[in-house]
Amino acid sequence: MNLKQKLGKRIQELRKFQNITQEKLAEIVNMDITSLSKIETGRNYPQPDTLEKIASALSVDIERLFVFKSNFTKEDYIEAIYKNVDFIKNNEEKLKFLYTVISSLV
Questions:
Q1: What are the 10-residue block averages of pLDDT along the chain, 106 residues in total?
Q2: Which of left, alpha, beta for 46 (phi over 0: left; psi -120 to 50: alpha)?
Q3: What domains are defined for the chain?
Q4: Are 55 and 36 in contact (CB under 8 A)?
Q5: What is the pTM of this model?
Q6: DSSP letters of 64-80?
Q7: Could you tell me if 36 and 22 are in contact, meaning their C-beta atoms sit under 8 angstroms apart?
């Protein structure tokens, strides 16, 4: 896997970890979804300013985009959980399901 592919996979991994769709990230970064897809699949490199916008949208330092192995910290997981709960807080059915899953783990 070359650098372009590793970077694209990392961006996709961070985006999915935070439960952000390609459409939403493209909107935040102000780019079309096709361009973002090409970055995530390793067909294109992002321009430096786009790379900065992506890092900002994903709430990570730009250097973190180049950490190619999954080594999320406990804080990363907690932050992602809070973001996901915030995302579904208006959906009672999903909240009940989440409660059921968490209750079964405790």
A1: 89 91 95 96 93 93 81 74 78 84 83
A2: beta
A3: 1-69 (1.10.260.40), 72-106 (no CATH)
A4: no
A5: 0.66
A6: GGG--S----HHHHHHH
A7: yes
